[in-house]
Amino acid sequence: MVAHCRAMGCATGRRDVETMGQQAEGKEGEARPSDHARGIMTAGVSPVPPRPSGWGQIMVLGACLVILFLGSGHPVGGEPPVPYRLDQSAEGVAMVFPKPMAVDRLLVSATHPGVWGMGRAARIGVAKTASHSAVAGWRPGQGDQLVFSLADPWTDRIELIALSTVTAPATPSWDLRVEGTWAHQRRLANRLTALVTEVAGRQTRQGCFCCHQVMPLALAAHLAQARHLPRPQARLATWALELARWQRADGSFSFPAAPEFGVVTPTLAAAAVLGWLQDLNPALETALLKAVSFLVSQQQPDGSLVPDFTFPPLLTGRPAMGWLFVHALREMAGILERRGFAPIPRFAWAQQRAETWLAEAVRARPDQALFGWLARVGEPLSGRDGVDEVASFQRTLHPAHDPELTALLEWVHPQGRNPGSPASGGRGRGSPAPVQTPESIGGGDFRQEAWGLVRDLANEP
């Protein structure tokens, strides 16, 4: 998130109006270190220019009103703006965010009146949070920005202090930019990065596709993309292309060293994963096409697919396989439409038969209703499969005991909890979280972490 920010309040105006009557010390244009630079801790701010009068006062107050009513500035690069307010602090000005942010860099105009004072320009400044700080300098004629590289993964406040100021040019700049994202979103991205590293390592160590592990990872990556959240694009693309290399010439995914894993079940899992990840590289679309073509050849006369390997709690029974099959067919149909191709008749017929079979199967077996809901993710819930029924099923589950089912149900019907909230098994937004690493995931409960990430992403707006 690179956002162009303006203050959500008139803190800058309060500071300027309060100091308008003070007279600047020292010679005009001469660099003057602040009390902070001399090691004297005071409650003052940088020296300010002589009091403006007449139209000068009107222009200052008008600028304050503009800030007050505009709120956040226009976003940069299509990203949403970052709201904040400017408060006076003991040593300068503090940027206060409404919720914690992960701040990579802070770029502030050296002549920003709301930060350094009217008529003043900061030659040297400090930006500091509770755990990080950075110093930046500026010289006239070399641009007018102070760039503070903070790299703080969690902060709700940045204090800005001028160590040395000079007289500002006649036309000041109000430019102030925050490069970063909301802290909880950065935390989700870090968890996703650690998860992909852990899964790739397990696949290498075990020489196995690891169906039950790649599925939550791929779904988490898909949810992050659908919600426009940051994710490790290059790392995910490399991993996904490695997955595609497991594919055999007929489009199936099977493992001669472990024939007990079957062919249909791993191909279904792989097709679902490719469907969730196909936006990462066009080669994945081709792999999905081949996998779907193989699966269609295995479809039964009644429209179902018969698994040749099961792995509880998800990869069991034909309804679960029906959900994965319908998902893969729908993703393939979407790719063809986006690419401008006509539907493939046998794929369209296979999808219609599979959807019909799955609807009848879950109607006859209420305990398998989840897979019918999953096959229609994104469609409004109504009637028998309405919100009340989903909520009733959710109340029978516990995240610690049923992480897979809990996460998938919240994908069907998000509960609106804050990611990382205690109810979702994570940490609250009110405190920094430890950095996730592959080792921390591998040493803990993989199911809880992987499906907990899916659950948190499902609840992200």
What can you see in these coordinates?
This protein is of the alpha+beta class. It has 2 domains: 173 residues, no CATH class; 274 residues, Glycosyltransferase (Alpha/alpha barrel), CATH 1.50.10. It is 42% helix and 15% strand. It contains 15 helices and 8 strands. Strands 1, 2, 3, 4, 5, 6, 7 and 8 form an 8-stranded antiparallel beta sheet that branches. Helix 5 packs parallel to helix 15, helix 9 packs antiparallel against helix 10 and helix 13 packs parallel to helix 15. The radius of gyration is 28 Å and the shape is elongated. The two termini are 16 Å apart. 43% of the residues are buried. The N terminus is likely disordered.
- State which percent range the strand residues make up: 15-25%
Mean pLDDT: 78
- Second rung of CATH, namely the architecture of the largest domain: Alpha/alpha barrel
Number of strands: 8
The top level CATH class name of the largest domain: Mainly Alpha
Structural class: alpha+beta
Q: How many independent structural domains? A: 2
Fold blueprint:
Elements (H helix, E strand, L loop, with lengths): L1 E3 L6 H9 L12 E2 L21 H16 L14 E4 L4 E17 L3 H4 L3 E9 L4 E5 L7 E23 L8 E7 H24 L4 H16 L6 H12 L19 H14 L4 H16 L19 H22 L6 H20 L4 H6 L12 H8 L8 H10 L25 H5 L3 H13 L3
Antiparallel strand pairs: 1-8, 2-7, 3-4, 4-7, 4-8, 5-6, 5-7
